[in-house]
Write a structure and sequence with these properties.
single chain, alpha/beta, 5-stranded parallel sheet
Length: 144
């Protein structure tokens, strides 16, 4: 019961790929988000599509073994919520590929999407379904 209570108090977020890449380096000013995840103080929601994009982009930016290690770390943590979106909302028309993050956030009950991608700004003008978006810099400031 204690573990279930602790997990219910965690912030649940969807992390855009650009932000995941930014939090991984130990010298990054954003690394505390990765540390919070590893120490189970925050919960990430992901779909299979998101995991595939994470692996692809990390492989491009670093190398495939590193990308595999990150994905294994993610999927083996109890604070990773795997979501299978049951609805496609199509809220981001400028870059439809970004909709996988929105669908995951809505269907997975995430508090917010953390992204520095300007395509997500359209969500600030969408009343329903409401999805809160926060830049990585602001997310870091808020948690301090």
């Amino acid at each position: 019961m204690e573990n279930a209570t602790r997990q219910s108090l965690m912030r649940r977020i969807v992390l855009d790929t650009n932000c995941l890449v930014a939090i991984l380096p130990s010298k990054s000013v954003y690394h505390s988000v990765w540390t919070d995840f590893l120490e189970e103080r925050i919960e990430f929601s992901v779909s299979n599509e998101i995991l595939a994009e994470y692996e692809e982009i990390i492989s491009i930016k670093t190398n495939h073994p590193f990308a595999e290690a990150i994905i294994k770390t993610l999927i083996n943590k109890p604070n990773l919520l795997r979501v299978t979106p049951t609805w496609r909302f199509g809220l981001i028309e400028a870059d439809p590929d970004d909709n996988k993050f929105v669908d995951c956030a809505i269907c997975g009950g995430a508090e917010l999407i953390v992204s520095n991608d300007k395509h997500f700004n359209v969500l600030n003008e969408t009343d329903f379904p409401f999805v809160r978006v926060q830049r990585l810099q602001d997310f870091i400031k808020e948690k301090q």
